[in-house]
Amino acid sequence: MDVPSPLSVEALIAALKAAGEGTRIRVLALLAQAELTVKDLTAILAQSQPRISRHLKLLTEAGLVERHPEGAWVFYRLADDGPGGRLARDLCALTDGGDLVLSRDRERLEQVKQEQAEQAHRYFTANAADWGTIRSLHVADDSVEAAMLAALGGRAFEAFLDLGTGTGRLLELFAPLYRRAVGIDTSTAMLAVARANLDRAGVHDAQVRLGDIYNLALPRNAFDVVAIHQVLHYLDDPERAVAEAARVLRPGGRLLIVDFAPHELEFLRERHAHRRLGFGHEPMAQWVAAAGLDLEKVVDLPTGGSADRLTVTLWLARDRRILMADEGSKREVA
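User: That's the sequence. What structure does it adopt?
Assistant: C-alpha coordinates below.
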Protein backbone atom coordinates (compact mmCIF):
# COMPACT_ATOMS: atom_id res chain seq x y z
CA MET A 1 0.00 0.00 0.00
CA ASP A 2 1.35 3.42 -0.96
CA VAL A 3 2.18 5.73 1.96
CA PRO A 4 1.05 9.35 1.42
CA SER A 5 3.83 11.92 1.19
CA PRO A 6 4.24 14.08 4.29
CA LEU A 7 2.78 17.58 4.38
CA SER A 8 5.00 20.59 4.56
CA VAL A 9 4.59 22.65 7.72
CA GLU A 10 2.84 25.38 5.71
CA ALA A 11 0.44 22.91 4.09
CA LEU A 12 -0.26 21.23 7.43
CA ILE A 13 -1.11 24.57 9.06
CA ALA A 14 -3.41 25.43 6.14
CA ALA A 15 -5.18 22.07 6.38
CA LEU A 16 -5.63 22.37 10.14
CA LYS A 17 -7.01 25.90 9.73
CA ALA A 18 -9.47 24.63 7.13
CA ALA A 19 -10.64 21.86 9.44
CA GLY A 20 -10.52 23.97 12.60
CA GLU A 21 -14.10 25.21 12.61
CA GLY A 22 -17.19 23.62 14.14
CA THR A 23 -19.28 23.13 11.02
CA ARG A 24 -16.33 21.92 8.98
CA ILE A 25 -15.45 19.26 11.56
CA ARG A 26 -19.08 18.14 11.35
CA VAL A 27 -18.85 18.05 7.55
CA LEU A 28 -15.71 15.91 7.69
CA ALA A 29 -17.36 13.51 10.14
CA LEU A 30 -20.36 13.16 7.80
CA LEU A 31 -18.22 12.67 4.70
CA ALA A 32 -16.36 9.90 6.52
CA GLN A 33 -19.70 8.07 6.51
CA ALA A 34 -20.92 8.69 2.95
CA GLU A 35 -20.63 10.66 -0.28
CA LEU A 36 -22.90 13.68 0.04
CA THR A 37 -24.09 16.64 -2.02
CA VAL A 38 -24.52 20.24 -0.95
CA LYS A 39 -28.25 19.55 -0.81
CA ASP A 40 -27.70 16.59 1.52
CA LEU A 41 -25.45 18.57 3.85
CA THR A 42 -27.85 21.50 3.84
CA ALA A 43 -30.66 19.20 5.00
CA ILE A 44 -28.52 17.50 7.63
CA LEU A 45 -26.84 20.59 9.10
CA ALA A 46 -29.79 22.98 8.66
CA GLN A 47 -27.58 25.66 7.15
CA SER A 48 -27.90 27.66 3.95
CA GLN A 49 -26.59 26.40 0.62
CA PRO A 50 -24.06 29.28 0.23
CA ARG A 51 -22.66 28.62 3.71
CA ILE A 52 -22.28 24.88 3.09
CA SER A 53 -20.71 25.52 -0.32
CA ARG A 54 -18.19 27.87 1.29
CA HIS A 55 -17.19 25.27 3.88
CA LEU A 56 -16.77 22.63 1.20
CA LYS A 57 -14.69 24.96 -0.94
CA LEU A 58 -12.24 25.54 1.91
CA LEU A 59 -12.00 21.85 2.74
CA THR A 60 -11.47 20.96 -0.92
CA GLU A 61 -8.78 23.58 -1.43
CA ALA A 62 -6.97 22.21 1.64
CA GLY A 63 -6.96 18.72 0.12
CA LEU A 64 -9.11 17.22 2.84
CA VAL A 65 -12.14 16.67 0.61
CA GLU A 66 -12.65 15.72 -3.04
CA ARG A 67 -15.50 16.79 -5.34
CA HIS A 68 -16.90 14.61 -8.11
CA PRO A 69 -19.34 16.22 -10.58
CA GLU A 70 -22.19 13.99 -11.68
CA GLY A 71 -24.42 15.73 -14.19
CA ALA A 72 -25.97 18.71 -12.47
CA TRP A 73 -24.86 17.43 -9.05
CA VAL A 74 -21.52 17.35 -7.28
CA PHE A 75 -20.73 14.66 -4.73
CA TYR A 76 -18.20 15.25 -1.96
CA ARG A 77 -16.20 12.72 0.03
CA LEU A 78 -13.01 12.59 2.08
CA ALA A 79 -9.96 12.66 -0.16
CA ASP A 80 -8.92 9.16 -1.23
CA ASP A 81 -5.23 9.73 -1.70
CA GLY A 82 -2.52 11.96 -0.34
CA PRO A 83 -1.74 13.35 3.10
CA GLY A 84 -4.90 15.49 3.16
CA GLY A 85 -7.11 12.43 3.08
CA ARG A 86 -5.04 10.76 5.78
CA LEU A 87 -5.25 13.87 7.97
CA ALA A 88 -9.03 14.11 7.46
CA ARG A 89 -9.51 10.51 8.55
CA ASP A 90 -7.22 10.94 11.54
CA LEU A 91 -9.20 13.99 12.66
CA CYS A 92 -12.48 12.08 12.31
CA ALA A 93 -11.05 9.17 14.30
CA LEU A 94 -10.20 11.56 17.14
CA THR A 95 -13.76 12.87 17.50
CA ASP A 96 -15.93 11.63 20.33
CA GLY A 97 -18.44 9.19 18.85
CA GLY A 98 -20.85 10.01 21.66
CA ASP A 99 -20.82 13.76 21.06
CA LEU A 100 -24.45 14.95 21.01
CA VAL A 101 -24.02 17.22 17.99
CA LEU A 102 -22.27 14.56 15.91
CA SER A 103 -24.79 11.92 17.02
CA ARG A 104 -27.65 14.10 15.87
CA ASP A 105 -25.88 14.69 12.56
CA ARG A 106 -25.61 10.94 12.07
CA GLU A 107 -29.31 10.54 12.78
CA ARG A 108 -30.16 13.13 10.12
CA LEU A 109 -27.74 11.44 7.73
CA GLU A 110 -29.61 8.16 8.19
CA GLN A 111 -32.88 9.94 7.43
CA VAL A 112 -31.43 11.35 4.21
CA LYS A 113 -30.10 7.92 3.24
CA GLN A 114 -33.48 6.36 3.89
CA GLU A 115 -35.21 8.88 1.66
CA GLN A 116 -32.66 8.25 -1.10
CA ALA A 117 -33.03 4.49 -0.74
CA GLU A 118 -36.79 4.78 -1.14
CA GLN A 119 -36.36 6.87 -4.29
CA ALA A 120 -33.86 4.37 -5.71
CA HIS A 121 -36.18 1.48 -4.91
CA ARG A 122 -39.04 3.13 -6.77
CA TYR A 123 -36.79 3.62 -9.80
CA PHE A 124 -35.50 0.06 -9.76
CA THR A 125 -39.00 -1.36 -9.37
CA ALA A 126 -40.21 0.64 -12.36
CA ASN A 127 -37.35 -0.67 -14.53
CA ALA A 128 -36.82 -4.13 -13.13
CA ALA A 129 -38.76 -5.91 -15.89
CA ASP A 130 -35.95 -5.38 -18.41
CA TRP A 131 -33.31 -6.94 -16.16
CA GLY A 132 -35.62 -9.81 -15.24
CA THR A 133 -36.33 -10.67 -18.88
CA ILE A 134 -32.64 -10.83 -19.78
CA ARG A 135 -31.60 -12.72 -16.63
CA SER A 136 -34.17 -15.42 -17.43
CA LEU A 137 -32.34 -16.13 -20.71
CA HIS A 138 -28.97 -17.11 -19.25
CA VAL A 139 -27.33 -19.07 -16.48
CA ALA A 140 -28.28 -17.97 -12.96
CA ASP A 141 -26.58 -14.87 -11.57
CA ASP A 142 -25.09 -16.78 -8.64
CA SER A 143 -23.34 -19.16 -11.05
CA VAL A 144 -21.88 -16.24 -13.01
CA GLU A 145 -20.74 -14.56 -9.80
CA ALA A 146 -19.17 -17.77 -8.54
CA ALA A 147 -17.22 -18.06 -11.80
CA MET A 148 -16.02 -14.48 -11.47
CA LEU A 149 -14.84 -15.02 -7.91
CA ALA A 150 -13.10 -18.24 -8.92
CA ALA A 151 -11.35 -16.49 -11.81
CA LEU A 152 -9.90 -13.84 -9.52
CA GLY A 153 -8.98 -16.28 -6.77
CA GLY A 154 -9.13 -15.48 -3.08
CA ARG A 155 -6.15 -13.13 -2.78
CA ALA A 156 -6.80 -9.58 -1.62
CA PHE A 157 -5.80 -6.63 -3.78
CA GLU A 158 -5.64 -2.87 -3.40
CA ALA A 159 -7.87 -1.15 -5.98
CA PHE A 160 -10.91 -2.29 -7.99
CA LEU A 161 -12.72 -0.52 -10.84
CA ASP A 162 -16.19 -1.59 -12.02
CA LEU A 163 -17.09 -0.15 -15.44
CA GLY A 164 -20.83 0.11 -16.00
CA THR A 165 -21.48 -0.61 -12.33
CA GLY A 166 -25.28 -0.45 -12.65
CA THR A 167 -26.74 -1.51 -9.32
CA GLY A 168 -23.27 -1.77 -7.75
CA ARG A 169 -23.49 -5.54 -7.41
CA LEU A 170 -19.82 -6.23 -8.23
CA LEU A 171 -18.69 -3.60 -5.75
CA GLU A 172 -20.61 -5.55 -3.13
CA LEU A 173 -19.51 -8.99 -4.38
CA PHE A 174 -15.78 -8.19 -4.38
CA ALA A 175 -15.81 -6.03 -1.22
CA PRO A 176 -13.98 -8.67 0.86
CA LEU A 177 -11.08 -8.60 -1.64
CA TYR A 178 -10.33 -4.93 -2.28
CA ARG A 179 -9.22 -2.04 -0.07
CA ARG A 180 -10.87 0.64 -2.20
CA ALA A 181 -13.09 0.62 -5.25
CA VAL A 182 -14.73 2.88 -7.81
CA GLY A 183 -17.83 2.15 -9.87
CA ILE A 184 -18.47 4.11 -13.08
CA ASP A 185 -21.82 4.45 -14.84
CA THR A 186 -23.45 6.82 -17.33
CA SER A 187 -26.82 6.86 -15.55
CA THR A 188 -27.39 9.04 -12.51
CA ALA A 189 -30.49 7.02 -11.71
CA MET A 190 -28.53 3.77 -11.65
CA LEU A 191 -25.85 5.40 -9.51
CA ALA A 192 -28.57 6.25 -6.99
CA VAL A 193 -29.56 2.57 -6.98
CA ALA A 194 -25.92 1.57 -6.48
CA ARG A 195 -25.43 3.98 -3.59
CA ALA A 196 -28.53 2.69 -1.85
CA ASN A 197 -27.48 -0.93 -2.36
CA LEU A 198 -23.94 -0.34 -1.10
CA ASP A 199 -25.20 1.52 1.95
CA ARG A 200 -27.65 -1.26 2.75
CA ALA A 201 -24.88 -3.86 2.36
CA GLY A 202 -22.52 -1.89 4.62
CA VAL A 203 -19.90 -1.42 1.88
CA HIS A 204 -17.97 1.74 2.83
CA ASP A 205 -14.74 1.36 0.83
CA ALA A 206 -16.40 1.90 -2.56
CA GLN A 207 -17.61 5.00 -4.33
CA VAL A 208 -19.60 5.43 -7.52
CA ARG A 209 -19.20 8.16 -10.12
CA LEU A 210 -20.74 9.35 -13.33
CA GLY A 211 -18.30 8.70 -16.14
CA ASP A 212 -17.58 7.86 -19.77
CA ILE A 213 -16.30 4.32 -20.33
CA TYR A 214 -14.41 5.53 -23.42
CA ASN A 215 -12.69 8.40 -21.63
CA LEU A 216 -12.23 7.68 -17.94
CA ALA A 217 -11.28 10.59 -15.72
CA LEU A 218 -8.80 8.29 -14.01
CA PRO A 219 -5.00 8.05 -14.14
CA ARG A 220 -2.95 5.32 -15.73
CA ASN A 221 -1.72 2.44 -13.57
CA ALA A 222 -4.40 3.02 -10.94
CA PHE A 223 -6.21 -0.32 -10.48
CA ASP A 224 -5.28 -3.91 -9.78
CA VAL A 225 -8.53 -5.31 -11.16
CA VAL A 226 -10.97 -3.81 -13.67
CA ALA A 227 -14.30 -5.50 -14.42
CA ILE A 228 -16.67 -4.98 -17.35
CA HIS A 229 -19.75 -7.05 -16.57
CA GLN A 230 -22.56 -7.27 -19.15
CA VAL A 231 -21.73 -3.84 -20.57
CA LEU A 232 -19.89 -4.28 -23.86
CA HIS A 233 -22.99 -5.41 -25.77
CA TYR A 234 -24.52 -1.95 -25.23
CA LEU A 235 -21.56 -0.15 -26.82
CA ASP A 236 -20.91 1.03 -30.35
CA ASP A 237 -17.16 0.52 -29.92
CA PRO A 238 -16.43 -2.23 -27.37
CA GLU A 239 -12.80 -2.56 -28.48
CA ARG A 240 -12.19 1.06 -27.52
CA ALA A 241 -13.73 0.42 -24.09
CA VAL A 242 -11.40 -2.56 -23.57
CA ALA A 243 -8.39 -0.41 -24.48
CA GLU A 244 -9.45 2.31 -22.04
CA ALA A 245 -9.93 -0.26 -19.28
CA ALA A 246 -6.43 -1.59 -19.97
CA ARG A 247 -5.01 1.94 -19.74
CA VAL A 248 -5.90 2.26 -16.06
CA LEU A 249 -4.57 -1.17 -15.07
CA ARG A 250 -1.42 -1.35 -13.02
CA PRO A 251 1.46 -3.49 -14.31
CA GLY A 252 0.38 -7.07 -13.83
CA GLY A 253 -3.22 -5.98 -13.21
CA ARG A 254 -6.18 -8.05 -14.39
CA LEU A 255 -9.14 -7.25 -16.64
CA LEU A 256 -12.26 -9.36 -16.07
CA ILE A 257 -14.86 -9.22 -18.84
CA VAL A 258 -18.23 -11.01 -18.69
CA ASP A 259 -20.67 -10.85 -21.59
CA PHE A 260 -22.76 -12.95 -23.93
CA ALA A 261 -21.39 -15.36 -26.50
CA PRO A 262 -22.65 -14.77 -30.07
CA HIS A 263 -26.42 -15.30 -30.39
CA GLU A 264 -29.33 -14.42 -32.68
CA LEU A 265 -31.87 -12.91 -30.30
CA GLU A 266 -32.69 -9.80 -32.31
CA PHE A 267 -35.37 -8.68 -29.87
CA LEU A 268 -32.61 -7.73 -27.42
CA ARG A 269 -31.61 -5.02 -29.89
CA GLU A 270 -35.16 -3.89 -30.49
CA ARG A 271 -36.44 -3.88 -26.92
CA HIS A 272 -33.38 -3.65 -24.69
CA ALA A 273 -30.92 -1.41 -26.59
CA HIS A 274 -28.30 -4.11 -27.20
CA ARG A 275 -25.89 -2.96 -29.90
CA ARG A 276 -23.98 -6.23 -30.23
CA LEU A 277 -25.39 -9.77 -30.24
CA GLY A 278 -22.59 -11.28 -28.21
CA PHE A 279 -18.83 -11.70 -28.69
CA GLY A 280 -16.74 -14.58 -29.98
CA HIS A 281 -13.54 -15.84 -28.42
CA GLU A 282 -11.30 -14.72 -31.26
CA PRO A 283 -12.38 -11.05 -31.52
CA MET A 284 -12.06 -10.63 -27.76
CA ALA A 285 -8.59 -12.23 -27.80
CA GLN A 286 -7.53 -9.78 -30.48
CA TRP A 287 -8.89 -6.78 -28.56
CA VAL A 288 -7.15 -7.63 -25.29
CA ALA A 289 -3.88 -8.37 -27.10
CA ALA A 290 -4.05 -5.02 -28.90
CA ALA A 291 -4.57 -3.38 -25.50
CA GLY A 292 -1.32 -4.88 -24.16
CA LEU A 293 -2.90 -7.73 -22.21
CA ASP A 294 -2.35 -11.49 -22.20
CA LEU A 295 -5.50 -13.61 -22.18
CA GLU A 296 -5.24 -16.06 -19.27
CA LYS A 297 -8.65 -17.69 -19.09
CA VAL A 298 -11.85 -18.09 -21.12
CA VAL A 299 -14.87 -19.80 -19.56
CA ASP A 300 -18.23 -20.42 -21.25
CA LEU A 301 -21.26 -20.75 -18.96
CA PRO A 302 -24.06 -22.18 -21.12
CA THR A 303 -27.55 -22.66 -19.72
CA GLY A 304 -28.21 -25.78 -21.75
CA GLY A 305 -31.58 -26.51 -23.28
CA SER A 306 -33.16 -24.58 -26.14
CA ALA A 307 -31.38 -22.48 -28.75
CA ASP A 308 -32.93 -19.26 -27.47
CA ARG A 309 -30.90 -19.47 -24.27
CA LEU A 310 -27.80 -17.32 -23.93
CA THR A 311 -24.30 -18.49 -23.14
CA VAL A 312 -22.33 -16.20 -20.82
CA THR A 313 -18.59 -16.03 -21.44
CA LEU A 314 -15.92 -14.91 -18.99
CA TRP A 315 -12.55 -13.61 -20.18
CA LEU A 316 -9.68 -12.92 -17.77
CA ALA A 317 -6.67 -11.01 -19.13
CA ARG A 318 -3.55 -9.69 -17.42
CA ASP A 319 -1.43 -6.65 -18.12
CA ARG A 320 1.80 -8.05 -19.52
CA ARG A 321 3.96 -5.58 -17.63
CA ILE A 322 5.16 -6.70 -14.21
CA LEU A 323 6.48 -5.00 -11.11
CA MET A 324 9.76 -6.29 -9.74
CA ALA A 325 11.32 -5.52 -6.39
CA ASP A 326 14.59 -3.62 -6.78
CA GLU A 327 16.52 -2.91 -3.59
CA GLY A 328 13.41 -2.34 -1.52
CA SER A 329 11.59 -0.23 -4.10
CA LYS A 330 9.39 -1.18 -7.03
CA ARG A 331 10.08 -0.53 -10.67
CA GLU A 332 8.02 -1.21 -13.76
CA VAL A 333 9.31 -3.75 -16.27
CA ALA A 334 7.81 -3.93 -19.78
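The two ends are 22 Å apart (CA to CA).
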